[in-house]
Amino acid sequence: xAQQRAMRADARRNVEKLLDxxxxxxxxxxxxxxxxxxxxxAGVSIGTLYNRFCNREELIDAxxxxxxxxxxxxxxxxxxAASTPWDRFAAYIFGLSELQAGDHAFSDAMxxxxxxxxxxxxxxxxxxxxxxRLIADAQADGSLRADVTVDDLFTALWLNACLADHGGPQxxxxxxxxxxxxxxxxxxxxxxxxxxxxxxxxxxxARLMRA
Length: 211
Description:
- The chain is mainly α.
- The protein has helices at residues 2-29, 35-42, 46-52, 56-63, 65-80, 85-102, 104-111, 118-140, 150-166, 171-186, 198-210.
- Helix content is 77%, strand content 0%.
């Protein structure tokens, strides 16, 4: 009996080590990071990983949804504390951009359904729903151009994720520059008619989500 308890305790420790390692590796390298890297970080064999988690999706679902929700919640609190609808919208966009640069797991969860579980997709939906509300508020007070949709926001985040993944050490600074340029273009002052329409933006956003 004592030997069985020791084995169960050892198994629990291995699970916790794997979950901690998965959070670290996925943040550093994205949700597509090799599972061998997760096992190595945890100090266990790849066989041990697959004994505990049947596949990548099961590991992601065990390791990340609560952490992703907490990260999004903290950003949301900071954004909605800003003083004006425009400032809240801008704070949210800048915050998402910065998270994408420093947390590739969050970036992948927000911008791709490739490895998404229902729990991860729930976090993504919550992020886009808040974006929709902030867009509506900024449009209602006249600070944000009226033809912007949440699909435009998603496409901008998807492009920013590419910059975060491939831009190297200077990517975070350049990302802030690109987001600043984007926000200047989204202001209602001096706006021009946009090429394309909301239907095209929605179709492209849906295609990018599946990429």
